[in-house]
Design a protein that fits this description.
The structure holds 2 protein chains of 2 kinds. Chain A has 2 helices and 15 strands. Chain A is of the alpha/beta class. Chain A folds into 2 domains: 98 residues, no CATH class; 30 residues. In chain A, the strands form 2 sheets. In chain A, strands 2, 4, 6, 8, 9, 11, 12, 14 and 15 form a 9-stranded parallel β-sheet that branches. In chain A, strands 1-3-5-7-10-13 form a 6-stranded parallel β-sheet, with no helix packed on it. Chain A is globular and about 40 Å long. The termini of chain A are far apart. Chain B is α+β, with helices and mostly antiparallel strands. Chain B folds into 2 domains: 112 residues, Rossmann fold (3-Layer(aba) Sandwich), CATH 3.40.50; 116 residues, Tumour Suppressor Smad4. The two termini of chain B are 28 Å apart. Chain B has a 15-stranded mixed β-sheet that branches. In chain B, strands 11-12 form a two-stranded antiparallel sheet. Classes of the chains: A alpha/beta, B alpha+beta. At the A-B interface, strand 1 and strand 2 of A face strand 9, strand 13 and strand 15 of B.
C-alpha cells in the first residue's frame, strides 16, 4: 500500500493527459489567402488552406485545400483533400477526395482517390484514379497474348 | 524566492484595495516576497538580472498587458520562472490566453505553479511578447523564405504572440472578430487596403498565415508598434524563439 499511487496523483496525471489530448486536437490552424492578395512561391501549410486570392508556384498541404469562387491557382497542387470552386491551372495530386463545384475550372492532370464533379464544372486534363491501374495492366497483357495468338494464326494461314 | 514587479499605475487609489487583498493572499499561501516598483523608463533586464544574482527564482509581473510586454520584451531569456498577476479589467487581454483570472483570484494560479515553457517572437533580434502591429504601408511579406505575399496597394500586418487581435470588417460592423494566438507558431494577420473615393481607403478581407519565420520589406520606412512601443523600420525580420520563457500558467489557458 505504501508504494501505491494515491488517488490524487492518479487524478492529476489523468488531468494532464486530458489537457494534452485537448491541445493536440485543437492545434488546427487555418491559412487564409484573402481575395486581394497574391502569393508567389512554394506555398505549404500543415493545416487547412483557404484560397480566395491568387497563388502562383506550388501549393502543398496534408489537410484540406479549399479554393473559393473567383480564386485562382497557377500551380501544381498536392493536398489531403480539396474543394474547388475557383480556377486551378496545374496538375493536382489529391490523396483522398476532390470535390469540384459548378463554378470550378481545372486545367491540368488530376490524380485522386475519390472524385465528385458537379454539373457545370470544367475539367481539361487526364484524370487518373488508383483503383483502375490493375485492370489496365491485366487488359494490356491479355491484348498482347491475343495479338500474339492472332499473329500465329495468320502465319499458319500463310504457311 | 519571489520578486514582485509592480507597475506604476497601481499607485492609483482604485487599485489599493485590490493590491492589499492580493498581498494578504500571497502571505496566506506563503509566497510573498520583495516588491519593486517600475516606471515607464525602467529597463526590466538589469533589474531582473540583479535580483537573480541575489537569489530570486521567481519574477512575478503585477499589472496589465503593457507591464507584461514591458518586462518580458527585455527580461525573456533570463534564467528564472515568470508569473503574472493581472490587475483591473482594462487592458488585460493576455491574461485569459494564459488562463489567469484578474485581481486576487490570480494568486491561486501563481500558488499552484503549473509551469509551461512558452515560445516568444524575435523581431530584429529583440523579443516581443504581446503583439506586433505594422501600420498600413506598401510592404511585401516573405514567409519561411519560401513564398512571398503582396497586395496591390497598402497592407496592414498584425502578428499575435500572446495578445489576441480584435478587428471589425468595417466601421458599421457590429460583430468584433478575434484572432486567437496559438503556441508553437506565430500568426500573421494581413489586411490589404484599396482606394475608395478620392482620399479614402477601404479594408479588404484579411489573410491569415501561421509561420515560424517572416520578413517584412517596405518600399519606404513604415511605422511599427511592438509591445506598445512605436518605431520606424524599413526591414523587419521576425522569428519564433521556442521555449524561451518558463511561465506559471492557468489550467484554462488557450494553447
Amino acid at each position: 500500500m505504501i508504494f501505491q499511487k494515491s488517488n490524487k496523483q492518479v487524478a492529476e496525471v489523468e488531468e494532464i493527459y486530458i489537457e494534452q489530448v485537448e491541445r493536440d486536437t485543437e492545434d488546427n490552424i487555418d491559412t487564409v489567402v484573402g481575395p486581394s492578395v497574391n502569393v508567389e512561391g512554394d506555398f505549404s501549410s500543415e493545416g487547412n488552406i483557404i484560397v480566395k486570392g491568387t497563388v502562383t508556384g506550388s501549393v502543398h498541404t496534408s489537410r484540406v485545400l479549399s479554393v473559393e469562387p473567383g480564386a485562382r491557382i497557377n500551380a501544381n497542387v498536392r493536398a489531403g483533400s480539396a474543394l474547388i470552386a475557383g480556377e486551378v491551372r496545374g496538375n493536382m495530386k489529391i490523396k483522398d477526395s476532390l470535390e469540384l463545384s459548378a463554378t470550378a475550372r481545372v486545367l491540368g492532370d488530376v490524380e485522386v482517390k475519390v472524385l465528385s464533379i458537379a454539373p457545370g464544372a470544367i475539367v481539361f486534363g487526364k484524370i487518373s484514379m488508383p483503383g483502375i491501374e490493375g485492370v489496365e495492366v491485366k487488359s494490356g497483357r491479355r491484348s498482347r497474348k491475343t495479338e500474339e495468338a492472332a499473329g500465329q494464326q495468320n502465319e499458319e494461314y500463310i504457311g | 524566492m519571489y520578486v514582485y514587479l509592480y507597475d506604476s499605475f497601481l499607485e492609483q487609489r482604485k487599485y489599493i484595495s485590490i493590491i492589499k487583498a492580493i498581498e494578504n493572499r500571497l502571505t496566506d499561501y506563503g509566497i510573498s516576497g520583495k516588491i519593486l516598483r517600475l516606471n515607464n523608463f525602467t529597463d526590466a533586464k538589469p533589474v531582473i538580472d540583479d535580483e537573480i544574482k541575489r537569489g530570486a527564482t521567481n519574477i512575478v509581473i503585477v499589472g496589465n498587458d503593457k507591464t507584461f510586454g514591458l518586462v518580458l520584451s527585455r527580461g525573456a531569456g533570463s534564467n528564472c520562472v515568470f508569473g503574472f498577476l493581472p490587475i483591473g479589467t482594462e487592458n488585460n487581454t493576455v491574461a485569459p490566453v494564459l488562463g489567469i483570472p484578474v485581481n486576487e483570484a490570480s494568486v491561486e494560479v501563481l500558488a499552484k505553479r503549473r509551469k509551461e515553457k512558452l515560445d516568444i517572437g524575435l523581431v530584429n533580434s529583440r523579443f516581443f511578447v504581446s503583439q506586433l502591429h505594422v501600420m498600413p504601408a506598401k510592404v511585401q511579406v516573405i514567409y519561411d523564405r519560401k513564398f512571398k505575399v503582396t497586395a496591390e496597394d497598402k497592407m496592414e500586418v498584425v502578428v499575435c504572440n500572446f495578445q489576441p487581435f480584435y478587428w471589425k470588417k468595417d466601421k458599421r460592423d457590429k460583430e468584433t472578430q478575434v484572432v486567437h494566438p496559438q503556441d508553437g507558431k506565430l500568426e500573421a494577420f494581413l489586411r490589404p487596403l484599396t482606394k475608395s473615393g478620392w482620399f479614402g481607403y477601404k479594408y479588404e478581407e484579411p489573410s491569415i498565415f501561421p509561420f515560424e519565420e517572416m520578413e517584412i520589406i517596405g518600399e519606404n520606412a513604415f511605422l511599427v508598434e511592438t509591445d506598445g512601443r512605436q518605431t520606424k523600420e524599413i526591414n523587419l525580420k521576425l522569428k519564433l524563439a521556442k521555449s524561451k520563457i518558463e511561465m506559471i500558467v492557468g489550467k484554462n489557458r488557450m494553447f
